[in-house]
Design goal:
This protein has 14 helices and twelve strands. By secondary structure, it is an alpha/beta fold. It has two domains: about 180 residues, Rossmann fold (3-Layer(aba) Sandwich), CATH 3.40.50; about 180 residues, Up-down Bundle (Dehydroquinate synthase-like, alpha domain), CATH 1.20.1090.10. It has an eight-stranded mixed β-sheet with strand order 1-2-3-10-7-6-4-5, with helices on both faces. It has a two-stranded antiparallel sheet with strand order 8-9. The longest helix is centred in the C-terminal third of the chain and has 18 residues. It starts with a strand and ends with a helix. It binds nicotinamide-adenine-dinucleotide. Nicotinamide-adenine-dinucleotide binds next to helix 4, helix 5 and helix 6.
């Protein structure tokens, strides 16, 4: 992984495990600072698919250079992006007409996952370029090549691994993000800090980020770059090193399914609060580190409790559909005092354990 700084922008070059060609992730403070030299080289058979709910200002800032090069039918709006097979099929129908040589996805993680999945299957794999427009997608979903669709009430049940050729984004896109979506992105950022506490934890606790106002998002530029560098390095490796990114996701994904419309980063925050408590109880993580992490989640306005009305049995039922359950045991990937590790919990013990952890965590509320 190599991080290069230009006058204002940064670029990270990394080689995903199993790939021959390096990939590039670029971030610029403003749209005008982005390196768009690649746009001019785009094939006339490029397909652009963007989230139709993007504010006009954001969509047009990104689309203008493409409009000059591509016919209108190559630029399509996805009205209400969902990670569903139905929407993937709609994209395939459009792809059949255009036969794209490259697909560009513009939007948050929902759009980039959906479009990347569809492209990765089309013609046995069509290259993609991502232009993520949410904090969560810039910092996390755009790196790693995981393209999952939700199926039968299970997150990312159907998917592919296919890395984008390039990711190009700008912090300016975040200025129009609703506050809740902006905050959700910090769920994943705090995950990086919980897993790699060193520098990131200090930076997060010391900078006075006003996360209630995405207008100040430029203050997070360095933080976002640091997290992207960590994730790029992780995807160069394999095994547990890469899987650690699933911290908080066992419970988080189940909550996302149970509570339709809930935000990914918020569900992961609750997941980390619980899975971190599990790590403390299992004796692999110090209580002090868990308290720090929980404090950070709360100070960024993120939830840490299982929402009222969600029963532990319902939660466990949803968790069984996810790939971290093998039929008899649940695997939790958690930070530990020497990096990260797996904690295995037998199926019949989980409901009782979650209830106990809930009680224990509430008793430690400062
Ligand atoms: N592939 C991966 O490795 C990976 C990692 C993390 C999360 N994800 C997936 O990402 C998804 C969540 O992504 P998300 O949090 O980006 O949500 P999202 O894509 O659903 O976007 C959230 C909302 O923000 C709006 N929006 C997007 N950009 C905007 C902008 N610049 N200004 C104003 N509004 C804007 C969208 O229209 C939407 O209403 C989940 O499905 C999750 O599973 C994937």
């Amino acid at each position: 992984m190599v991080l290069t700084r230009f006058s204002r922008a940064v670029s990270i070059e990394y080689l995903p495990a199993g790939e021959r060609a390096p990939r590039r992730w670029d971030l610029a403070p403003r749209f005008g600072d982005s390196d768009l030299s690649w746009v001019a080289d785009a094939s006339p058979r490029t397909l652009i698919a963007y989230d139709g709910r993007l504010p006009r200002r954001v969509a047009e800032s990104i689309l203008t250079p493409f409009r000059e090069l591509l016919p209108d039918e190559n630029i399509i709006q996805i009205e209400h992006p969902k990670k569903s097979l139905l929407q993937a099929r709609r994209l395939w129908s459009i792809m059949m007409g255009i036969k794209p040589e490259c697909v560009v996805a513009i939007g948050g993680g929902t759009t980039t996952d959906l479009v990347s999945f569809a492209a990765s299957c089309f013609n046995r794999g069509t290259p993609t370029i991502l232009i993520p427009t949410t904090l969560l997608a810039i910092v996390d979903a755009s790196i790693g090549g995981k393209n999952g669709l939700d199926y039968q009430r299970c997150k990312n049940a159907i998917g592919t691994i296919s890395h984008p050729m390039r990711v190009s984004s700008s912090m300016e896109a975040l200025e129009t993000l609703p506050c809740g979506e902006y905050r959700s992105g910090f769920g994943e950022i705090i995950k990086f800090a919980a897993l790699f506490p060193g520098k990131l934890m200090d930076r997060l606790t010391s900078i006075a980020l006003d996360i209630s106002n995405p207008d100040n998002c430029q203050d997070a530029f360095e933080l976002v770059t640091e997290c992207a560098a960590i994730k790029s390095e992780l995807v160069e490796g394999t095994g547990l090193g890469r899987e650690c990114m699933l911290y908080g996701h066992n419970i988080g994904h189940a909550l996302e399914v149970i509570r339709k419309g809930s935000r990914h980063g918020e569900c992961v925050a609750i997941g980390m609060a619980f899975e971190g408590a599990l790590a403390v109880k299992a004796g692999v993580l110090s209580e002090q580190r868990w308290v720090e992490q929980r404090h950070l989640l709360r100070s960024f306005g993120l939830p840490i409790d299982i929402p009222r009305g969600v029963r532990m049995t319902t939660l466990v039922h949803a968790m069984k559909r996810y790939r971290l359950f093998d039929g008899t045991e649940f695997t939790f990937i958690v930070p530990c005092d020497k990096g990260f590790t797996r904690v295995l919990v037998p199926e019949d013990q989980l409901p009782g354990l979650l209830t106990e952890l809930d009680r224990w965590a509430r008793s430690r509320r400062g």
